């Protein structure tokens, strides 16, 4: 997809303008007083706001902005100015002594200068923080590893943090420093242990260099000597070939994966028999650039498709995993859709929003597929960006999380209605990735141009939901994916840290793992293959993650695309020494789970299983998984020697929309079972 497209009328106007310029090119230059030269100067407004707890000044070049920020609040004057349309304004932030400038929000991101092309009214936020700041050392592997972390010689106060069995000491592990203090931290393992590495804001196993701009917790991981880094950073298997570029990828209730790009057939692959050949399934039409999710009965539903860039088909299609064949829906949508998002509703109907139609116009009216026909939500007309991040909320409404800043609820009752929830902190997370990591709780990370490493969360269960910043990833990235793992943690893969739509010269190979309990990030092992625009990733039934795709678009030819896949084994699959961990097993589980009922599971490991998860099967493309979500399970065992566990099922489709899920058991060490495929529904 081109990063910028012109509406047909605008393109025609520009073309006509060029022709007129050519026709007039040989005429005499008019006198300065010629009325033809009278041009109205259009001006655009640049507004600077403040946030945080600190003081500083933001100035502009050319002059116009001279904005004093005090305790995070911008002054009433000097913080708004008008510039001629097209002027490129460069903003510089200077913190007061003892304070720090953390970063820009709004139109800009990062902490350097902020370049603002005044082609429209713009708003930029500068965040200053008041020092001093507390820096803490934590363990990246709680319960595991011994060692010590020290700051550089001569620093006062010094850090001298002893970590025992993954627990930092009560003294020596925390200190307060003025803004812009440079820290150099060294980790030394105890006898019999090895240093496994730093987590964000540092990475690797060397020294950790950090400039203090805010309060920060820095995790250090130690492991028993002889242990593999797989126990702390996971492990990638060698890449293997795929017959097509996996731009769209889905897990089916059969355990197989179906994937496709633009060229070639859709392809079936069996993770349980990875050496087997891919099996082609002829596409029903050009389903490239479509939206999709899993129906309540486990079939894959597809809406829209590709005519040309920015021109979508109005067709719908269904893949039947039991037959291995495609069919088209009996009726088509009212308009074509190119780059739409599909969301399964509590009653199993399929909501389709956004996209471009046959005439390259944005489709503003959502439509709902009920299994036999379509219903338009004519009261909910709204222009949304391509492939918006949409989530079913516990209220039964559908939540629009981005990538644009204003987030909203969509009610699908009657003719539909949008209700504003609030603004995200970061203005644009274009080609970042979002996930509902617990019922009603959403993580949005990365994205934007240039890409950001920041992340934020919102809890839709709150009376007044609001976005909240959390610690940033180690790497700025866009064209990325977030994937829910079997234990409820979130894996980030892929992306580029370069500016522009798809900078392949600055790929991010390292994966990152987010722990919702601590809201901390841990850097994982690097993938060996570059994966940026058009890459995909999904959770497999054995708890590993399949990563594939990249290319076949954005200037990357098919021949230069990634016709490959790799599998990542998360740390939870390994013992500290790198050997494979013993996994709980499921000997019996219901094939169907009804809302509000009790789930009974048989396992010989009943004494060690503490919890479980239901994870909806993935349907992913273009940096967003349109189907995945998680429902946590708390198991209660029968008295020994019984092998039966009991857990309450989801109360309704608001918490777990009907369809296929993976049921995982987890033991006290966090090791997951191989999943049992189940169907959740009424």
Descriptors:
single chain, 682 residues, mainly beta, Immunoglobulin-like, Methylamine Dehydrogenase, Chain H, 4 domains, 6-stranded antiparallel β-sheet, 5-stranded antiparallel β-sheet, 2 helices, 59 strands, disordered N terminus
Reading off the top of the CATH hierarchy, the class of the largest domain is best stated as: Mainly Beta
Please compute the radius of gyration using only Cα atoms. 27 Å
- Average pLDDT, rounded to a whole number, is 92
**Beta fraction of the residues?**
35-45%
Question: How many strand elements?
Answer: 59
Multimeric state: single chain
- Which stretches of 5+ consecutive residues score pLDDT under 50? 1-37
Shape summary: globular
Number of self-contained structural domains: 4
Instruction: Count every helix, treating DSSP H or I runs of 4 or more residues as helices.
Output: 2
CA distance, first residue to last residue: 40 Å
Any idea what the CATH superfamily of the largest domain is called? Galactose oxidase/kelch, beta-propeller
Biggest sheet overview: 6 strands, antiparallel
Strand order of the largest sheet: 24-23-22-21-53-54
From the 3D coordinates, which CATH architecture of the largest domain would you assign? 7 Propeller
Give a description of the structure:
There is one protein chain. With 682 residues, this protein is mainly beta. The chain folds into 4 domains: 42-130, Immunoglobulin-like, CATH 2.60.40; 133-226, Immunoglobulin-like; 236-279 and 287-373 and 381-573, Methylamine Dehydrogenase, Chain H (7 Propeller); 592-681, Immunoglobulins (Immunoglobulin-like, Sandwich), CATH 2.60.40. It is built from 2 helices and 59 strands. The strands form 14 sheets. The chain has a 6-stranded antiparallel β-sheet, with no helix packed on it. A hairpin with an 8-residue loop joins strand 41 and strand 42 (468-470). It is globular.
């Amino acid at each position: 997809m081109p990063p910028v497209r012109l509406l047909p009328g605008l393109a025609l106007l520009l073309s006509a303008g060029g022709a007129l310029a050519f026709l007039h090119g040989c005429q005499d230059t008019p006198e300065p007083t010629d009325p033809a030269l009278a041009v109205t100067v259009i001006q655009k407004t640049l507004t600077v706001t403040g946030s945080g707890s600190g003081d500083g000044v933001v100035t502009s070049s050319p002059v116009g902005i001279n904005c004093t920020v005090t305790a995070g609040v911008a002054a009433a004057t000097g913080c708004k100015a008008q510039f001629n349309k097209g002027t490129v304004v460069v903003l510089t932030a200077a913190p007061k002594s003892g304070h720090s400038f953390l970063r820009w929000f709004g139109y800009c991101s990062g902490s350097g200068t902020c370049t603002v092309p005044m082609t429209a009214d713009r708003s930029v936020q500068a965040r200053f923080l008041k020092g001093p700041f507390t820096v803490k050392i934590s363990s990246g592997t709680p319960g595991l590893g011994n060692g010590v972390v020290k700051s550089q010689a001569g620093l006062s106060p010094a850090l001298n943090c002893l970590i025992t069995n993954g627990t930092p000491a009560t003294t020596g592990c925390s200190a307060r420093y003025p803004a812009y203090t440079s820290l150099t931290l060294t980790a030394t393992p105890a006898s019999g242990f090895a240093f496994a590495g730093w987590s964000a804001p540092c990475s690797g196993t060397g020294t950790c260099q950090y400039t203090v701009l805010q309060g920060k917790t820095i995790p250090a991981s130690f492991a028993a000597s002889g242990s593999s880094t797989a126990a702390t950073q996971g492990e990638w298997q060698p890449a293997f070939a795929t017959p097509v570029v996996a731009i769209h990828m889905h897990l089916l209730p059969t355990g197989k994966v179906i994937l496709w790009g633009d060229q070639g057939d859709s392809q079936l692959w069996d993770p349980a028999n990875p050496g087997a050949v891919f099996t082609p399934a002829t596409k029903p039409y050009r389903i490239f650039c479509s939206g999709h999710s899993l129906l309540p009965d486990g079939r894959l539903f597809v809406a829209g498709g590709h005519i040309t860039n920015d021109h979508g088909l109005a067709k719908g299609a269904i893949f039947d995993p039991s037959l291995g064949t495609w069919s088209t829906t009996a009726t088509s949508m009212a308009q074509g859709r190119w780059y739409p998002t599909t969301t399964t509703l509590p009653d199993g109907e399929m909501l389709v929003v956004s996209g471009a139609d046959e005439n390259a116009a944005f489709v503003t009216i959502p439509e709902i597929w009920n299994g036999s026909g379509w219903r338009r939500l004519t009261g909910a007309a709204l222009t949304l960006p391509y492939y918006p991040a949409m989530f079913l909320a516990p209220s039964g409404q559908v939540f629009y999380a981005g990538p644009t800043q204003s987030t909203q609820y969509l009610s699908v009752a009657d003719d539909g209605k949008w209700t504003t929830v609030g603004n995200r902190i970061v203005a644009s997370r274009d080609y970042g990735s979002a996930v509902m990591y617990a019922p009603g709780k959403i993580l949005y990370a990365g994205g934007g141009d240039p890409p950001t490493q920041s992340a934020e969360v919102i809890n839709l269960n709150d009376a007044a939901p609001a976005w909240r910043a959390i610690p940033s990833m180690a790497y700025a990235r866009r064209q990325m994916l977030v994937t829910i793992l079997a234990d409820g943690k979130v894996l980030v893969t892929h992306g580029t840290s370069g500016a522009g739509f798809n900078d392949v010269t600055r790929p991010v190979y390292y994966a990152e793992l987010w722990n919702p309990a601590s809201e901390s990030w841990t850097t994982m092992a690097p993938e060996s293959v570059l994966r940026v625009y058009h890459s995909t990733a999904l959770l497999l039934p054995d708890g590993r993650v399949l990563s594939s795709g990249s290319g076949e678009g954005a200037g990357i030819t098919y021949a230069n695309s990634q016709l490959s896949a790799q599998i990542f084994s998360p740390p939870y699959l390994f013992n500290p020494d790198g050997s494979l961990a013993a996994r709980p097993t499921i000997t019996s589980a219901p094939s169907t789970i009804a809302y509000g009922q009790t789930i009974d599971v048989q396992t010989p490991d009943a004494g060690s299983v503490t919890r479980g998860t239901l994870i909806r099967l993935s349907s992913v493309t273009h940096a967003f998984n349109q189907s995945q979500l998680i429902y946590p399970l708390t198991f209660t065992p029968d008295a020994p020697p019984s092998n039966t566990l009991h857990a309450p099922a989801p109360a309704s489709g608001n918490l777990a929309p009907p369809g296929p899920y993976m049921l995982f058991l987890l033991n006290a060490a966090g090791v997951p079972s191989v999943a049992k495929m189940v169907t959740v529904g009424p």
